[in-house]
Each structure stands twice: as structure tokens, then as C-alpha cells.
Design a protein that fits this description.
The complex is a heterodimer of chains A (about 110) and B (about 375).
Chain A: E1 13-17, E2 23-24, E3 38-42, E4 46-53, E5 60-65, E6 70-75, E7 84-90, E8 99-104
Parallel strand pairs in A: 6-8
Antiparallel strand pairs in A: 1-2, 1-3, 4-5, 4-7, 5-6, 7-8
Chain B: E1 2-9, H1 20-35, E2 44-48, H2 58-66, E3 72-76, H3 82-96, E4 101-109, H4 116-123, H5 139-154, H6 158-161, H7 163-173, H8 187-192, E5 195-197, E6 200-201, E7 210-218, E8 226-235, H9 250-261, E9 270-273, H10 278-288, H11 296-301, H12 318-321, H13 327-341, E10 355-362, E11 367-374
Parallel strand pairs in B: 2-3, 2-4, 9-10
Antiparallel strand pairs in B: 1-7, 1-8, 4-7, 5-6, 8-11, 10-11
The complex binds zinc ion.
């Protein structure tokens, strides 16, 4: 497995099936569609907000990355569905590792 | 097939004094009394997990407590779908001849037995331990994400898309003296309540409750017994990042149950639909085909889900207003539909109710179980 943000490397690793081309985010050794082997790709960091929520526990969003996987992360509380984002990583005092944080893509 | 021979449902609320086992025993005794069976008649025992007990062997614990020595006993954990999953397994045990009288039980001191923080942290474990839990998401936030996507897709506001469902559940609960919240609310009250996770306000969210529910599933059908004419399930994902937001599994699950029962949606007189949040109810009603896409809130506002409407939903008030004690919360819908089909719901009776459906989801719309029930009055 290629290290990602959960290992302390500030990046998202997308697994791509060598046999059927299916892409996934949640770490597993074999393709959930065909049990094929996987090759890692580092996400570019571009994506689109699918859903977002803000509240007194902070803001989080579901984002579809350009590589074709859906990812959960913290976010700028102003983000709304449909917005283009840029992936960064931020960690608070209580976080063992920096976690995905989505900012609005300025364009 | 198998029949629901007896039901037990306690009042729900913040009711200190019993632990999880105590609530389970209370509900189990109510159900056995209602069915007219004794503890020694029980040869199958299925018990749902309790977050305040977190025991490896909940069925054995309850069997010993009640003095039951069943031929089959096991615990079940599929989140909010656990109650109906237990009934599906009880039906299978009866159909297979492995047991003749199966007691299905859930109960928990979820409100009094732990702090709100502990409860929130436990429930948040339905998220992915590596990729979601470290982000800090809670269950209300997961459902708020689903609400965000839903309102965006259909161009709705919380007050027209979601709040009418909370109002409808509260209207129902006002007629049930076991409900945790019975004071009527308006769409404005929902919008004025505290924001828990935008777009969900406090009144879009079910409470945390103490309580218990149980049923006796048996082979012999007589008198007041309600037949389990079909069950179905679907388990298509666990985590929200791998969910199909337009097909969580409810349609597949209900399709299997309706096919097994050889019936159709338009032949249902009353339904019990899992409603942990208003968005849960909206998504389930629409995926099940009980409301058009994007119209669940509008339908609620138009009275579709009231006692006299085309699809009476959760006449006991649902999780949103009867309350939510965990696995027992999902079983309350089942007990209510059975009560309706027996014609014993008194002031909240759906007239002429002969066939009903109950559907629950667990996790973040992850596990789906459906049961179709037919009353003692015969075929629909
Ligand atoms: Zn593959």
C-alpha cells in the first residue's frame, strides 16, 4: 500500500484496478468489483462538492475528485454543492495526522 | 410462514431507573404476556445489541436473566435495521423448523446510561475507522450531507423539503401516550430550533431515549396474530463515500419483500418507515416509491402520511417523536404496524388497515430490511 494522509503523508491515494479500471478510495488490496490487483494514483486535488454541512462541530463535505472517487473531508463552511474545490490538508491540536480540507477553487 | 403472535413496547423517553437488560426484560415480558406464552415456551431468542451494555452475548445474558433455556440464541448488529433483521431471522428459524416460538428483543438506557458525548462517539463508529472517523464526522453530520445533496438536487429549502415530515410525526405522536414528545410543532418551530448540522435543525433529528420493544414470532397463527408474509433485505454499502445516493438499497429490499408477499405498494394500508432524521424519512419514502422524487416534504404538508391520507406513516410518531432507544426504536415501527393491523390502535387507528409494510435502515442508509405484514382480517 502507498502511504496516504492516514499514514501522515498529506495526499490522497486512489486505487485503480489493473483488470477492470474501477477506482476506489477506501483502502483494500483487491478490487471490490472483480478482485483484480490495484495500482495507486496520487489525486491531483481537483474536485466538485457533492454535499456540505456546517455546524458547531465544524464543516465537512463530500467531494467527487477528478480521479473518480468520493471523499469525505473538512471544508470551508461557505462551500455549497456544485462548487469546485482544491484539496489541502489541515490538522488541529487533537488530530494525530492532518486530514483532507477542501477550499473553494478560485477561478 | 410465521406470525407475530405478541408485541411489547414500553414508553420511550428520558426514564432513569433501568439498565439495558432491565428494558429488554420489560419489553420481553410485555410481548410474552401479549402472546399468551410463558418463558419456558420460548425455544428461540434473538436480541439486539445495546450501546450502553456492549456485551458479546446479549441473547445469553437475557436468557439467563429471564430463566429461558432456548434451543437457539444469538445477538444481532446491523444498526437501525437490527430489529427487522432479527424478525427476518426469526421467520427463517420458524420456517426451517429450528424453533417454534422465537422471542425477539431490544432495549437500552441509551439516554440515561451514558453521556451525550459517549453516545455520539459510539454512533460515529459507523464511519470508516481510517478515512472518515478521523475527519470527526458524527451521524447527524452524515445525514446532513445527504440532506444537503437532496435539497440541492431538487432545489428545495429545509422548510419545504424536510420540516413538514417532522411536523407530521409530531402530529401522530400526540395521539400516543408512550411517546417522548407529544406537543404539536409547526414548520416554523422546526426552522427556529437550533441548527445541529446545517441543513438539519434539532427538530429534524430524533431524540436519544430509554426504552424497549419485543415481539414473539411463532409458527401457529390464530386470533390476533399478524402474518409475516414477506421479508427482504439489501446491503449495498457501509460508508457514505461508497453509497449510491439514488439507490441506497431500500428499493431492492422492499422489492424482495413485496415479491415474497406477492403484493404491491398500492395494496398497503399503513407503513412504518425508519425516520432517524427527516432526511432519512424523505429518502426512504421516495426510494420506496411512496412519494414522488423530491416531493416527500410537500406530500407530508398535504397530509398524505396522516391517518386519513393515502399512505399513513408511523402513526405512533416514529423515531422523531415517539423516540429512539436504538434497536428498540426501529422495532417500535413494527409494533405499531402490528397494532394497526390488529385493529387495536384506538384513537390513532387507520380504518380498515389489513396489510402493512415496515422498512428500516442501519448505518448511513447502509443496511436495509423490509417486512410485509398481513392482519388477521385475511388477504389484502
Ligand atoms: Zn476490478
Amino acid at each position: 500500500m502507498t502511504d496516504d494522509w492516514t499514514d501522515g503523508e498529506p495526499r490522497i491515494v486512489v486505487s485503480v484496478c489493473d483488470d477492470c479500471g474501477h477506482c476506489w478510495y477506501l483502502r483494500r488490496e483487491r478490487c471490490p468489483r472483480c478482485a483484480g490487483s490495484a495500482s495507486p494514483t496520487i489525486a491531483s486535488g481537483a474536485g466538485t462538492v457533492v454535499a456540505a454541512t456546517a455546524g458547531d462541530r465544524g464543516a465537512i463535505a463530500l467531494v467527487d475528485l477528478a480521479e473518480g472517487v468520493r471523499v469525505l473531508g473538512r471544508c470551508d463552511p461557505s462551500l455549497r454543492p456544485g462548487a469546485a474545490i482544491r484539496l489541502t490538508f489541515r490538522g488541529g491540536a487533537d488530530d494525530p495526522v492532518a486530514v483532507p480540507y477542501f477550499e473553494a477553487e478560485s477561478q | 410462514m410465521a406470525w407475530i403472535r405478541g408485541t411489547g413496547l414500553t414508553a420511550f423517553g428520558r426514564l432513569p431507573g433501568r439498565d439495558a437488560l432491565g428494558w429488554q426484560a420489560s419489553a420481553a415480558t410485555l410481548a410474552m404476556t401479549d402472546a399468551g406464552v410463558r418463558p419456558q415456551d420460548i425455544d428461540g431468542l434473538v436480541v439486539g445489541y445495546a450501546t450502553t451494555m456492549n456485551h458479546l452475548m446479549p441473547a445469553n445474558l437475557l436468557a439467563e436473566h429471564l430463566g429461558i433455556t432456548p434451543a437457539v440464541a444469538f445477538g444481532v448488529a446491523v444498526g437501525g435495521a437490527t430489529g427487522l433483521a432479527m424478525v427476518a431471522q426469526a421467520t427463517a428459524l420458524v420456517d426451517a423448523g429450528a424453533a417454534s416460538t422465537v422471542l425477539v428483543v431490544a432495549g437500552e438506557d441509551r439516554a440515561s446510561g451514558q453521556s451525550t458525548q459517549a453516545s455520539t462517539a459510539t454512533l460515529a463508529q459507523v464511519g470508516h475507522h481510517r478515512y472518515e472517523v478521523p475527519v470527526g464526522a458524527t451521524v447527524p453530520q452524515y445525514y446532513a450531507l445527504l440532506a444537503s445533496a437532496y435539497l440541492h438536487e431538487f432545489g428545495l429549502t429545509p422548510s419545504d423539503g424536510l420540516a413538514p415530515l417532522a411536523v407530521a410525526m409530531r402530529t401522530h405522536a400526540a395521539r400516543h401516550d408512550g411517546a417522548q414528545f407529544r406537543r404539536p410543532v409547526t414548520v416554523d418551530d422546526v426552522g427556529a430550533s437550533r441548527v445541529v448540522a446545517d441543513p438539519l435543525h434539532l427538530l429534524d433529528c430524533c431524540p436519544v431515549s430509554d426504552g424497549g420493544a419485543a415481539v414473539v414470532v411463532g409458527a401457529a397463527g390464530s386470533g390476533r396474530d399478524v402474518e409475516i408474509v414477506g421479508t427482504g433485505q439489501a446491503h449495498l454499502h457501509q460508508h457514505v463515500s461508497e453509497a449510491d445516493l439514488h439507490g441506497f438499497g431500500a428499493r431492492v429490499s422492499a422489492g424482495r419483500a413485496l415479491a415474497a408477499a406477492d403484493t404491491a405498494l398500492d395494496e398497503l394500508d399503513v407503513v412504518g418507515i425508519y425516520d432517524s432524521f427527516t432526511i432519512t424519512l424523505a429518502l426512504l419514502l421516495e426510494e420506496l416509491g411512496l412519494a414522488p422524487p423530491g416531493r416527500a416534504g410537500a406530500a407530508a404538508a398535504e397530509g398524505w402520511f396522516d391517518l386519513g391520507g393515502p399512505v399513513p406513516v408511523n402513526p405512533h410518531g416514529g423515531l422523531l417523536s415517539y423516540g429512539h432507544c436504538g434497536v428498540g426504536g426501529g422495532m417500535a415501527h413494527l409494533v405499531e404496524v402490528v397494532t394497526q393491523l390488529r385493529g387495536e390502535a384506538h384513537g390513532r387507528q387507520v380504518r380498515g388497515a389489513r396489510q402493512g409494510l415496515v422498512h428500516a435502515d442501519g448505518g448511513v442508509m447502509s443496511a436495509h430490511v423490509t417486512a410485509v405484514l398481513r392482519g388477521p382480517g385475511g388477504t389484502a
